[in-house]
Amino acid sequence: MGDTRDPARTKAALLDAALVEFSAHGRAGARTSAIARRAGVNKQLISHHFGGKDGLYRALVERWEAEEERYGGPDVSLADLAARYVEDGARHRDLHRLLLRASLDDQEAGRGVGADDLDDLRRRQDAGELTRRLDPAFVLLALEAIASAPLVFPADVRRLTGRDPASDDFAAWHAAQLRTLVELLAER
Known about the structure:
By secondary structure, the protein is mostly helical. Helix content is 71%, strand content 0%.
């Protein structure tokens, strides 16, 4: 089993293993012994590097939040921003499944959608990217639901589109469709 001689490699292996386990079993159901076994290290290294299972979970969420920060900004259209979430969800299915599991269990998993996101959508609404006929809070919730549809309804995706919800083909189609839908929400 691994040791602490290469802490960066050990931490990365633990994060990768934890992502798979948390995604498959949820925060409560994931076992540190299974995470350590998958990472090929001693279970005590979870406590050593992360302070325990909760610290390991928080590290995964922080990794997601750091990546999410690179998505947008005021110069990225709402349509492109929504499509980026779909594209990222396709690339990082386990991470999105982990966040979805936390949401289904009504647990906080990082910042989540909040006041800053709502303020950004209001700003976009003022700029005409979103019709004033829609409440920005509703739009945020709807976009979250649409982006998570392949994880929540994989059988429906296959049945309705004839595509594999985990395929690159479906991800490209899903992102393009969402981009078009969001463009249609603009003030005319």
